[in-house]
Known about the structure:
Layout: E1 2-10, H1 16-24, E2 29-34, E3 41-47, H2 50-61, E4 67-74
Amino acid sequence: xxxxxxxxxxxxxxxxxxxxxxxxxxxxxxxxxxxxxxxxxxxxxxxxxxxxxxxxxxxxxxxxxxxxxxxxxxxx
Length: 76
């Protein structure tokens, strides 16, 4: 099992509430937190392996409208 935390920067005029709702639709997203600072949202994701983690990030997270960039930190 791979556990990762994904730090998300949203577009300036994006609705963070709408992005959070969309993130929570994924069965792989276990937790979502809006935060203040350099990043706007932190997401905890669980995947079977690194290939599935890449798929989740590429096909379920980065494609959401309003997300400008992501930074993935994999739990050691």
